Amino acid sequence: MVDVLVVTAAEGNTPSRNTLEVLGAARRLADPTGGAVTTAVLGAPVEGLFSALVAGGADEVLWVEHPPLADAAPEAAVAALTHVVPHVGAAVVLLADDSTAREVAPRLAYRLQAGLVTEVTAVRAEGDRVVFARPAYGGRCAAELVATRFPVVGTVKLRSLEPVSERSGRPGAERRLAVSVEPSLIQTTVIERVTDEVRGVKLENARVVVSGGRGLKGPEPFRQLQELAQMLRGAVGATRAATDAGWVPVSWQVGQTGKTVSPDLYIAVGISGAIQHLAGMSGAKTIVAINSDPDAPIFKAAHLGVVADFKAVLPPFTAKVKALIES
Ligand SMILES: Cc1cc2nc3c(=O)[nH]c(=O)nc-3n(C[C@H](O)[C@H](O)[C@H](O)COP(=O)(O)OP(=O)(O)OC[C@H]3O[C@@H](n4cnc5c(N)ncnc54)[C@H](O)[C@@H]3O)c2cc1C
Question: Hey, whose CA ends up nearest to atom 51 of ligand 1?
């Protein structure tokens, strides 16, 4: 029996896609072993969220209340979870592999003297062992890590696992748990929250992503990518070279240290195909690459390649798409 604890934050009355994916991973472990899935929500109860989490796969929702948790200081989350994990008695603790989890998960594992597996792409129970898959060598191969000692902490790589289909009508339990966190442990002060304004489709949810790299040679051509993405009801992404150059916001970065996307169509324009970029987009169903260098590594990952200067290809391609949409 593998009991799983899913950790999430109280943000609005519907769970994020990321939380639903982690719940999906948790059910894959709990269901075959007869285990239970508890979701610890760091924050006060939010109306509507309980039933949405139960529909998403939770058997029980634990509201973990402590004022500093509202500020999302990682130290507060670590201190609170250090109490919560033994309280729940879960064998496996799962978080979405986002920037918060990257701060919280290693510290939590250390406090619990537990193992840590990051970027989990698949998970299964095998007898009294839990097997995690994760990318190794920058995504060149998959490694399997076997946990034989519990608890173990895992962060689930976003867009790697599907949420479970909605389990509406199932009963669930909810409890409140007050924790006390020693104030001196909290070293982080949240000064300001900046919300990244997203117009149109969110990059990580987009079915079509049009991405640009250093080959675009400046911010201006990204307007052409935006025009094309808008027509295809998609979003624009970028390589780290483009975000580091300040051509586009950092939130557009796709890759190992950026966002992971798994669209139906990924159009890579002026992108060489570095392993760190591929790590964030190789799950796309169809990859189209436009690059002037026939030896660019992106062509090994692409299903369709165009060896050309993007300036010669993009305008007629965009015009053709426009004509098709209007016809
Ligand atoms: C720890 C670490 C983490 C990283 N994380 C990420 C990450 O998350 N995401 C990421 O993207 N990178 C990441 N990188 C950087 C990565 O290694 C590459 O440097 C980066 O992806 C290269 O970006 P690029 O393809 O835009 O640029 P380049 O490699 O310079 O490629 C530009 C391409 O454009 C082509 N080109 C030039 N002119 C034209 C033209 N006119 N028309 C068509 N094609 C043209 C060239 O042939 C070339 O292939 C990371 C690196 C490290 C070390």
Answer: 276
Residue 95 phi/psi, 5-degree rounding, is -130, 155
What is the pTM assigned to this prediction?
Answer: 0.79
* 60 in a structural domain: yes
How far apart CA 41 and CA 61 sit, in angstroms, is 7
Whose Cα sits closest to atom 18 in ligand 1?
274
Considering only CA atoms, which of 60, 153, 141 is closest in space to residue 115? 153
190 domain residue, yes or no: no
Query: Is the same domain home to 144 and 51?
Result: yes
Tally of CA atoms within 13 A in the half-sphere of 116 that contains its CB: 18
Residue 85 lies in a domain: yes
Q: Are 20 and 159 in contact (CB under 8 A)?
A: no
**Is 300 found in the same domain as 241?**
yes
Per the structure, the complete domain to which residue 257 belongs is given by 203-326
Q: 74 falls in which pLDDT band (50, 70, 90)?
A: confident
Which residues are near ligand 1 (CB < 6 Å)?
A: 213-215, 239-242, 253-258, 270-272, 274, 276-277, 280, 290-293, 296, 309-310
Ligand 1, atom 8, residue with closest C-alpha: 255
Q: What atom of ligand 1 comes closest to residue 255's alpha carbon?
A: 8
- Tokens read off for 141: 């191969």
Terminal-to-terminal C-alpha distance of the chain: 57
User: By alpha-carbon position, which residue is closest to atom 40 of ligand 1?
Assistant: 309
3-state secondary structure of 110: helix
**Token pair belonging to 279:** 């790590």
Residues in the chain: 327
Q: How far is the CA of 275 from the centre of ligand 1 (A)?
A: 9
Residue that terminates a domain, selected from 130, 150, 185: 185
- From 284, 257, 248, 247, select the one nearest 268 (Cα to Cα): 284
Could you report the per-residue pLDDT of 8-61, keeping only the tens digit for each? 987 788 999 999 999 999 999 999 999 999 999 998 888 899 999 999 999 999
